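Recall that a protein's primary structure is simply its ordered list of amino acids. Everything else, from secondary elements to tertiary packing, is in principle encoded there. The following example makes that idea concrete.
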Amino acid sequence: TIITSPASQEVPYPQHQPAPPPIQQPSSPARPAKRSRTPQHQPASPPTQQPSSPARPAKRSRTPQHQPAPPPTQQPSSPARPAKRSRTPQHQPAPKPTQQPAPLSWKTEKDPDIAPPVSRFQPARTPGPQLSSTSTYTPLDLFKLFFPVQTIQTLCQNTNKQAAKQMAQGKKYKWLDVNIGEFYKYIGLLLYMAMVKLDSIADYWRQNHFFSLQIPVQIMPRDRYRALSWNLHLSDPEEDVQNDKKKGTADHDKLFRLKPLMNTIKNACKSFYHPHRDVAVDEKMVASKSKTGMTQYMKAKPIKWGFKLFVFGKSDVPSGHGLSYDVVMSLVQPGYLGTGYHIYMDNFYSSPKLFRALHEQKFAACGTYNNALTKKSERGSIRWIRDGPLIYVKWMDTREVSVCSTLHTAYSGNAVQRRVKQQDGSWTKTSIPCPTPVMEYNAHMGGVDHSDQLIQYYSAQHKTMRWYRQLFYHFLDIATTNSYILHKELCLAQQTTPMTHKAFMEELTVELCGKPLHTAPVPVPAGHIPVPIAVHAADSSTKATTGRSRCEHCQSQGQRKDTPWKCRECDVALCVQLDRNCFAAWHDS
């Protein structure tokens, strides 16, 4: 403690010692002594004697707690301002110093970790298809959940209005109003083209050619198919005009031309399926270079230009925390989903703010983030740090991987197999430790990628000049893929074998087109009859063996059989025996 005076130097005094007597001041006027800074548990020093001349009163004392306040300074008889009242608290304990949290530090896989408590999984509905598990559903029944008759009726009305508008503007092609049955056939023809790939639309109706197809012409003429494709319209053309007048204002709806079908697809996805505990959030691209103001360029995606769709949807009202935050929070609605879900995402969405917000709503999260170890770190190196429910893990594989999670421990002893090149140039497999969040992320984040893979197998995408027709084809892909997912899970609940994806698409296509899947075999023409291979034999002893050749049908079955018979029209050696009629089997196939 230091007591200062105008006539004295600064003199330090140790604590817990009584203060010295005051220093006598000269008789000339002087400023009063400065306030005392005596430490706690020490008696305060008596006041300094002041001369008889007028002077300002001493400053108020800030004596610490549990010390008697000093008596007031005696003032001369001349008028003076009274001393300020002391604000020293009475008999209050001294405040304790604030304890600072321990600094966070990075740990390794050798350090123990305890996962935060994870909310119990309580879905709002039973996960899986929201359909009767005892009923039988054909592929067409499941498809009509996403393309119901009411929606097809709306699309037919709007398409007819668009065609009438085009005809009024001078378009020269024949048009008849489309109805519900014909529109379903049009969709079936689109799926047929997804199954049978050709270079151009005209090739499907090519006639008198070796590669001619018989099915398209039986479903619909080529010109009718083209007229439907040119006039396909999802929204009301008259309402489009009113919406276009609002461009540049907040009332303009950029997705107005998609709403009739888009809303139906979204509602069907929510109504007829409830997600299981582990879900993934990601975005996908629909290829398009239309200049609509909504197309984006993404260098890292296989599809560079197109519409960016957020799987599970996107909030219309921004929260101020960023687009990625709003996308995920629009998905996790406890009133619809329930609680206890595990949400996996990539580094576009991951952030501590989002993960903490999800944790408060009883959702656990796991996702990658942009961070890295040094390039000199050994393969399999693990570094982690925990901040409350959040754990940040960094792992070195062939490249650095960083994952954040609110439901996993840092390391549970898991390992992955990797091929490592030895000094002699040979390759060997070795086990390297892998963090638990990385293992779980790889196991569950592939859901959206698997959906994309199913769509790409039999996609109905076509080149078109209208952006909303491009998204119509994508909605068609979503409907067929989701129908197949419902089919597989219903078969699993009924303990029956589901159809393959290809068989499901074939069955759906023929149901939409109104054609049978299996057709009667084509009768063998009169020219296809068995004849001997050899014209004549040298003698009767070699009659049974002369001209024998290997049977083509037996060879295709992995067998080696010789026969003296062949088809006269095909000129192919085929067996004709009582127990092996390869001639009939060959022509039936």
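The chain is about 30% helix and 15% strand. Confidence is low (pLDDT under 50) at residues 1-80, 313-317.
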